[in-house]
Design brief:
metal ion binding; elongated; binds manganese (II) ion; Peptidase_M20; Aminopeptidase; Alpha-Beta Plaits; binds glyoxylic acid; zinc; 12 helices; Zn-dependent hydrolase; hydrolase; four-stranded antiparallel beta sheet
Amino acid sequence: MTNPDLITVNGDRLWQSLKDLAEVGAYEDERTGLRGVNRLALTDADAAGRRLVISWMEQAGLSVRIDRMGNIYGRREGTDPAARPVLTGSHIDSVATAGAFDGCLGVLGGIEVVRTLNERGITTRRPLEVAVFTEEEGVRFGTDMLGSAVAARRLSAAYAHALTDRDGATLGDELARTGFAGPVDERLDAPHAYVECHIEQGPVLARAGVEVGVVTGVQGISWQEITFHGRAAHAGTTPTELRADAGLAAAQLIVRLRAMVDSGSYGELRATVGHLIVHPDLTNIVPARAELTVDLRNPDDAAMARAEEDLAAFLRTLETGQPGLSIATRRMARTAPVPFDEGVQKVIARAADDHGLAHLSLLSGAGHDAQEIAALCPTAMIFVRGEYDGISHNPREYSTPETCAHGVDVLATALLRLADE
Ligand code: GLV
Ligand code: MN
Ligand code: MN
Ligand code: MN
C-alpha cells in the first residue's frame, strides 16, 4: 500500500457541515417543537442547499459539473487521468419532515474525505468524484431515485423532465428555474466503483449496538397512485345503498393492505398509504373522489409481484361491488431488489475492521441512489447507526457525531483502497 489509507476524517468539521446544511430549509415541527428539514427536490430551499454544497466542493478544490438532470459531480483528479473514477455521494433533497442526515451524510461525508486527503497531501491513482443526485426522495415529482436512475440509463431524461408536481410544475421547468439544468450529458460513464455512506433509517444497528453496517443490497419498491371515483351526495339525505363512496373504498383498500401484510403470504411485505385526500373534502358530502398512494416494499421480487396482482384483483372486486365506483391506477415507480457487489462489501468490511469498528451486514429497507448506480459499476453502501430505533423521515432522525465520523472514516479508507486498484 503506497498511501496511509487508515486515515480518520475531521469529525467536528463533518458535523458542522451537517448542521449548516440542515439550516437550509429548516422548520420547527409544530407538535414536538423539534427542528426539522423540508428541502423537497428543486424547491428554492433545495437550490440554496445545492449552492452551499457546490461552494464547499469548490473550496475543497473539486471541479464541478452539472448534468441535464441537475445531478452534480465534484471531481478530484488522480495521478492517472485516464483511469475511471471512484464515485461516492448521495442526495440532499429531503422529504417534507426530514432530519439532517438522510442523504446529506453521504454527500458531506464525500466532501469531508476530499478535505482530509487535501490536508494530508494524499493522492490517488484514480480520480475521486462526489455526486449529488436529483430527486432521490421522489416525493415531489413522484418517482424516486430519479437523477441516479437517469444517470444509470434505467429511465430517460425525457421521462424525468416531463414529471409534474401537484401544482403542475414539471421537473424540466424547475431545473431551468433554479438554474440546475446543466449542460453535461445525463448518462454517466461507468465509474470504477461506487460507495455510498448513509444513515440506516431503521432499527437493526441500534438494536445490535453496532455503529457500522455493510449493506448487502436494497429491497424492491413498488409505488402507485390509486384514484377512486364515486359520486358526491348529501350526507343527510342519501340512503346508504344509493351511495358511491370513494372514501369508503379508499379505507377498505388501506385495511386490506394491512391484512395482506399480516397474512404472511407475501414474504416480508411492507405496505404504506402515506398520501390520502378526499374530494370535495367537506363534512356533509359523500366523497366523490379519493386519491391515495400505495408504497410496497419487499426483498423478494416474486412475493412483490404476487402482492401487486392480488392488490389489483382486490380493486376489481371493490369496483364491481359498489355501483357507481370506478378505480384508476397509475404506476409511479417500480424497482426490483438489487444485490450489492460482494467485492465492494468486502472492502468496506475490511476498512471497518482496520478502524477497529464492529460491523454487521444487512439489507437496506430504504431506497438509495446506490441501487441505480449498481447497474453501472461494482457498488455497495456503508450504513451508520441511527439513534431512537433508527427513526427517519422524521425530524427526530439522529446519529451521533462520533458515529457519523466513524462511518466516514470507513468511507475514506474504502475509497482510497478502491482508488488505488
Ligand atoms: C426513500 O427514502 C425511500 O426509501 O422511500
Ligand atoms: Mn436517502
Ligand atoms: Mn429518504
Ligand atoms: Mn431514500
